[in-house]
Amino acid sequence: MTAAFEEKPPHAPQPQNVVVRDIEDGDIDHVVALWHEAGLYRPWNDPLKDIAFARRDPHATVLVALDREAIVATAMVGEDGHRGWVYYVATDPGRRGEGLGRLIMQAAEDWLLRRGVWKMHLLVREGNSAVIDFYEHLGFRDGKVVCMQKVIARTGSEE
């Protein structure tokens, strides 16, 4: 366990027979559908472009967790040579509470550790207290930073 994560509570369920791997071509439509179901879709972020960008960059990937053939969780993970970042963390809404979120986050952490990254970051939309509680349970803390952004390429649907 790294310093960024606390020990798992003993009562936490452990997903059985779930395999985590990098996304493949045949997964893309299912991943996008899961992101919609999980409420992650935003019209200004084209998920197909985000997936394609992560797949062509050796410093990023999209991880999928499969229970048999069904995609039940995802996380986009990448590193910039300094820190790791996690995006698009989603679990099948009908399977919440089974430990899939913790499983995919551990897979993202492991992916970063294999690349020598020692600290991971993620962004949570303001007011999303349930998700903040989940990440705090995994050992994440408010970094006391302000995230600023600037749109540098117009696509017509920016937030």
Automatic annotation (TrEMBL):
Record's keyword annotation contains Acyltransferase: yes
Transmembrane segments: none
Enzyme class: transferase
InterPro entries: Acyl_CoA_acyltransferase, GNAT_dom
Pfam families found in the cross-reference section: Acetyltransf_1
Residue ranges constituting the N-acetyltransferase domain according to the UniProt record: 18-157
Keyword terms: Acyltransferase, Transferase
EC identifiers of the protein: 2.3.1.-
Any one GO molecular-function label of the UniProt entry: acyltransferase activity, transferring groups other than amino-acyl groups
PANTHER family (alphabetical): ABC SUPERFAMILY TRANSPORT PROTEIN, N-ACETYLTRANSFERASE
Name under which the protein is recorded: Acetyltransferase YpeA
Record lineage: Bacteria, Pseudomonadati, Pseudomonadota, Alphaproteobacteria, Hyphomicrobiales
